[in-house]
Write a structure and sequence with these properties.
Helix content: under 10%
Number of strands: 4
Strand order of the largest sheet: 1-2-3-4
Strand content: over 45%
Structural class: mainly beta
Order of helices and strands: EHEEE
Number of helices: 1
Shape: elongated
Length: 75
């Protein structure tokens, strides 16, 4: 088993969709931003199966912390 850590930064946009931005009548590009830390466990002897756990915090808009588990793709 290979265990790796990662630091990530995710920036995206919601183009005028008030359900994503939480702001009514949004017509301009609104950038969404989060940052976090993660661990990856790569089970080399089991066809490279990867388990992921991430802890992320939204920066804009500030919505607090989130925890994510995943199986499969590396990032």
């Amino acid at each position: 088993v290979a265990v790796q850590g990662c630091v990530f930064n995710d920036i995206g946009s919601a183009w005028g969709d008030s359900t994503l931005t939480g702001e009514p009548n949004t017509k301009n590009i609104n950038f969404l931003w989060s940052t976090g830390l993660g661990l990856r466990a790569n089970f080399l002897h089991f066809a490279g199966a990867i388990l992921r756990i991430d802890l992320a915090r939204t920066v804009h808009p500030d919505e607090g912390l989130g925890l994510s588990f995943g199986v499969g793709q590396f990032f």
